[in-house]
Amino acid sequence: MMKVFKWSFIAAIFAYLYLPIAILVINSFNVSKYGYEWKGFTLNWYAKLWENEALAQAFLNSLLIATLAATAATLIGTLMALALYRYRFPLKATSSGLLFIVMMSPDIVLAITFLVIFIALGIQLGFWSLLIAHITFCLPFVVITVYAQLKGFDQYLLEAAQDLGASESRIFRLIIFPLVFPAIVAGWLLSFTLSLDDVIISSFVTGPSFEILPIRVFSMVKVGVSPEVNVLATLLLALSLLLVTFSTLLLRRKH
Amino acid sequence: MVINFRRFVIVLTVVWLGLFVLVPHVLVLLTSVMSPDPQHLAVWPLTLNSWGRLLEPLYAEVFWHSLWLSTLTTAICLLLGYPFAYIVAKLPGVWRGLLLFLMIVPFWTNSLIRTYAIKLILGNKGLVNSLLLASGLVDEPVQLLYTPFAVIFGLVYVLLPFMVLPLVSSFGKLDGTLLEAAHDLGAGFWQRFRLIIVPLTMPGIIAGSLMVFLPAMGMFYVADLLGGAKNLLLGNIIKNQFLVVRDWPFGAAFSVALIGIMAVLLWLYFLANRRINRAGGLDDESF
Q1: In angstroms, what separates the C-alpha of A107 from chain B's closest C-alpha?
Q2: In chain B, at which end, N or C, are there fewer CB atoms within 10 A of the end residue's CB?
Q3: A17-42 burial string, b = 16+ CB within 10 Å, else e?
Q4: Which of A233, A231, A250, A131 is nearest to A189 (CA)?
């Protein structure tokens, strides 16, 4: 009895989480534009998305930013985790405090701080501002993931390498990097997810020169219904699932 | 190697965080006490005018309404997320991993698009109203969209995973032998729940609540799509001041107020965490 209750509760929560997405995916193949009832199968909306150049471009831009930001954040975040784990330096406590602030701050506050610094530095709002902002808000999540892994492994390995005369960069390349590799993959995926999901920060730090998905979609869905958005959702989901399958396989082969 | 690796890593860390986190926060604080200027955004002299304007009835009202919507959202997330996390944390590793993974998957479709999906569900011709009409419970569509209910529905939808994840980690650390001991000594479920489970998962409860409550105040697009003109969030005002009215000092004052709320809540979090650690229940680990 208790067990039935438990699993129906779990099922209800997942129904709540997945119902909206299921509706988007189903409607991306629906002849009916408004999607209130099923009127037959079509791939018409996929063709429509292809023709809607501005939207397709925004979609590609979003993927580009997510990929670049996740890669850069993983790289920088891994090095930061290393610095916080291995080295002593002035401002170390401040640095981890700042990472904590980035993690806890509501997006709207981060968005304002990014906007203000870009204007102050004279960086034009567009590709670069967007990339820097996305890298920065992903950083703490990479650092936490990698740091946790660093804490877990054998300290003597590093000492042995050091005693045998390996340079710091060599130790990083040959010992630390391979050992924290799973955490790096996890950090990358998390960053990619956060970057793709972001709406608030992107709305503040991008300009007309480089439009990404949320900004384009916002103007489309505010007024009415757009079947192309259903297609986008379906494509994003399919792509991400592919990515995860791929990285799972990659990790399994490593072990 | 020509460049010292160690120095490179340290400089990168300090410079990046200083330039893109510390300095911007200081600049926002500074902006909030400057004078507005449509051309140059914020100019001297220093003034407390923007801060005074926070108290104007119109803005104070939005502020409280936003606070109220966020509080309700947090409460509902906790109500749903707590039992959910409890069940998930007790599952075997593979299942736990799978269910947590399934919580992350919706994030790949971008939260704006998901919010749009909710708009479709709650609309007059949407799924909920179709079901209500078909079941004969109502004769005409119920107005769900553009109500506080719709905003809370959307916020809970987007933020629920942020409540669940810290809670699962908290439940994971819960020492099962404590519960067994209590059970053996004759404590009922309610007693065990109130005296052991809740106090020991308090860090997770507070962390999850923070991760829901703070972002909830800023999610302007949820209010824009689902709330109509009357159910604004703090984020809508900040966005409006920065991007439309271009009164940066006033917008900055609102942001700093939000940072202030965050600081107070984080302080409470650390106090609670310390109390629990002193009681000897959990490791000292904020996340």
Answers
A1: 6
A2: N
A3: beebbebbbebbbbeeeebbeeeeee
A4: A250
To the nearest whole angstrom, how far is the Cα of B131 from the nearest Cα of chain A? 12
> Are residues B6 and A100 in contact, defined by beta-carbon separation less than 8 angstroms?
no
| Domain interval for residue B202 | 53-278
To 5 degrees, how large is the angle CA B275–CA B276–CA B277? 90
Longest dimension (CA), chain B: 78
- For residue B138, being part of any structural domain is answered with yes
* CATH number of the domain bearing residue B72: 1.10.3720.10
CA distance B46 to B53: 15
> Tens of pLDDT along A126-178?
899 999 999 999 999 999 889 988 887 777 888 888 888 888 888 888 888 88
Contact yes or no for B254/B79 (Cβ under 8 A): no
CA-nearest residue to B111 within chain A is A197
C-alpha A204/C-alpha B243 separation (Å) is 8
Q: How far is CA A254 from the centre of its chain?
A: 23
Q: Is residue B24 part of a domain?
A: no
Do B110 and A83 lie within an 8 Å CB cutoff?
no
d(CA B241, CA A221) in angstroms, rounded, equals 23
Residues B121, A20: C-beta atoms closer than 8 Å: yes
Number of domains chain B is built from: 1
B111-164 residue pLDDT tens: 888 898 898 888 888 888 888 888 878 888 888 888 899 999 999 999 999 999
**Amino acid identity, position B93:** G
The reply to whether B4 falls in a domain is no
Is the CB of residue B239 less than 8 Å from the CB of residue A108? yes
- B258 to chain A, closest Cα gap in Å: 8
ipTM of the prediction: 0.87
pTM above 0.90, yes or no: no
* Domain presence at residue B210: yes
